[in-house]
Amino acid sequence: MLKTVIYSGFIAIALLSLSGNEKPYFSNPTAQEIETLIDQMSIEEKVGQTCQITLDAIHQTDNKGQALIPERIDQAKLKEALEEYHVGSILNVGWHTLSLDEWKSVMTDIHAPYLKKEQNIPILYGIDAIHGVNYTIGGTLFPQEIGLAATWNTELARQMGEVTAYECRASGIPWNFSPVLDLGRQPLWSRHFETLGEDPVLGTQMGLALVEGYQGSGQTVDQFHAAACLKHFVGYSASFSGRDRTPAFIPEKYMQELYLPAFKAAVEKGALTLMINSGVVNGIPGHANYKLLTQTLKKDWAFKGFVVSDWEDFIMLHTVHRTAPSLADAAIQAFNAGVDMSMVPSNPQYKTYCKDMIQAVKSGKISMERLNDAVRRILYVKNQLGLFTNPLPAFDQYPLFGSSKFKAMAKQAALESITLLKNESNLLPLSGQQRILVAGPGAASLNMLNGAWTHTWQGLDTSFNTKGVLNIYQSVRQQFPSSQISLQQGVELYLENDFEASRYKDLNAYKKALKKNDVVMLCLGELPSTEKPGDIRSLQLDDKQKELVRLAKAAGKKVILVLLEARPRIINDIEPLCDAIIQAYLPGDHGGAALAELITGKADFTGRLPYTYPRYDGVIEFYDHPRSVDRSKSGDFKAYNPQWDFGFGLSYNTGKVKNMRFVNKDEQKGTFSIEVNVSNEGQKPILMVVPIYISDLYASTTPENKRLIDFQKVSILPGENKTLAFSFDANALKRVSADGQWRAEKGTFEIRCAEEMLNYELFNDLLF
Ligand code: BGC
Question: Any residues with Cβ below 6 Å from ligand 1, and which?
């Protein structure tokens, strides 16, 4: 008893002695000083740190609740959130992209209380800048992640991360909810385009490069970089129905081999934050999964940063997933599972959250230790970002925002992403003599080039599009004598009862225009969408758009099909009618210019599919399938028959792969190094993707026919012969064995690069 009295007396003296304004104020707290901060915080203040609200909860609105333009903070709402609820984080953008001036005004208001020392903990602001700073007017827009993956160029991914972080910071934002590390293995899913494709090795390498670009490679994150947020941990992309936020079933083996590796690698690289899967995996909502969040992520992987929920997901444990009988129970469940910050995010919900949490801590349903752990993690990230020193950047230190230098990088990413899938009789590059009709709903649409998360959440509003950017039709006109190029949309897409619908638009004019042209460049695809609004009922490409292809072919024209797709839509019926097919994915603002240069041959196609393009609606298969998937009715092994395989893509000029050889190998330890020669026997420089695949011939769990273990993208000058080196340790051989253990099982492996093949014999099992 005496001990307690003396101890609490000591704390009181220590706090009193801190300063006249009773709160300790540190501009760059050490770990010990962070403990001091935590010690002096009330439960209310600690809970506030775990609460994230949206900008809509604190901005000025008109009497209909609509945000004012320009965007301005409502001081009374801000004061209430910060002073009464001690909110620690804010996100988002209202309903549309903001100018740099608006961001400056918003951020200046938000950080004023900290800078005036009315608060001693800075606010952390987060945003979804997922393909460039898509919520700041004039920012640089890159391809969406699926296109980035198609470049197979990690340096471009790093650059995209770095430019995006810089432009986020120029907007006053130090935290980016990116990259998506979900695996793109459910083509129906509305967010397939946000992934880095279907392969864990490609996804991991590109994801790591993005994280490095976002955060930089220093010990802390400087004023030109931003915290990454790995999302959505884990299995969100594998929904069985294909609809957003619906259950996934992922056996432990595939969780380990396919879905977790990119997250694990990015955590090991030092990614500062991670966002949770809104869906349900194997019956357990992502936000209630103690094993994944606390055991795997925090204990086994030693993740030092913090975990943020997805939008309203504490609430959804009660209202949607029904694992919690009340909102209060939902908060307790998610927080105790290991989520550190709740994206509540609206008003008055955030107030309920804070009250429920305070009560839960007071009643012991959430321990003080757990609350402190969450707050410690959040303060650690704030400190890593330099926010205690100054949360408000000097807005004039970002002269490169929206610069031509950055835009050239985004265009290069678009150029290297766009993938040529068919080129019958070398229709491409176009000679420049033909009359070209650019048609289809994507022909003159910047929105269809960019997709969702562009200026608005769904990316549909045309009024915020980047000024001065050319769409496909305008870009093609720049490359050829403009008199040769004409435009007819033929079909327009619109929303009907929340689903995409289509109707003919000036179909007769389209038919007439066909007669006057030699080549029809049909830009087909889908309206921008993401999350629930992007749910679809069939993978088929809309039939009215297909009709444009049929009409063009019936008129005897050469057809170039350009796909602007958020996911691979089924086109097997029109594929034979097309002379050339180009997968543009969602290449961003510079996609039109890139496409025009590619079809003229000013640039070569170097993109390669980051997923297996399905041929049929009902047959979804992946390149790394087991042999049983190959087995056909007749008993041969040719059943695997996607429209195009993972890694596929054509180029005008290609290099040759020769002479793959072992430089080193230790068949006891499971290590090996190989070299391979790549040469350019043509007249033009080439840029070439060189992937290395491995096949485990026999194993305790059915082996894949092949799987990617590494790749490089190399440039080779005419006449040049380069040696590429690849080194592997036993990790390249390991798989999850029948007993659930990671193991490289002894036996024969085939290593392949193009037509080259080597055998590797592992002499004994290696356990991990
Ligand atoms: C999405 C997240 C996003 C968050 C914040 C959610 O609805 O699932 O990917 O980061 O909103 O905007």
Answer: 91-92, 128, 177, 231, 278, 310-311, 531
Q: 531 in the Ramachandran plot: left (φ > 0), alpha (ψ -120 to 50) or beta?
A: left
Q: What is the pLDDT of residues 365-394, one digit of tens each?
A: 999 999 999 999 999 999 999 999 999 999
Domain with CATH 3.40.50.1700 in the chain: 418-628
The terminus-to-terminus CA distance of the chain in angstroms comes to: 51
Is the model's pLDDT at 4 over the cut of 80?
Answer: no
- CA 311 – ligand 1 centroid, Å: 6
| Residues noted as catalytic | 310
Size (the chain), residues: 768
Nearest ligand 1 atom, CA 232: 9
Distance 309 CA to ligand 1 centre (A): 9
Q: What is the pTM of this model?
A: 0.96
Separation CA 141–CA 145 (nearest Å): 11
126 Cα nearest atom in ligand 1: 5
In contact, 144 and 451? CB cutoff 8 Å: yes
Band the pLDDT of 23: cuts 50, 70, 90.
confident
Using DSSP, state whether 665 is helix, strand or coil. Answer: strand
Question: How far is ligand 1, taken at its centre, from the CA of residue 346, in Å?
Answer: 14
Confidence of residue 350 (pLDDT cuts 50, 70, 90): very high
Note the pLDDT of residue 65. 87
CATH code assigned to 418-628? 3.40.50.1700
Superfamily of domain 41-397: Glycoside hydrolase, family 3, N-terminal domain (3.20.20.300)
Sequence ranges of the chain with CATH classification 2.60.40.10: 656-767
396: its two tokens: 């004039």
Rg (CA), the chain: 27
Tens-place pLDDT, residues 91-147 = 998 889 999 999 999 999 999 999 999 999 999 999 999 999 999 999 999 999 999
CATH 2.60.40.10 holds for 656-767: yes
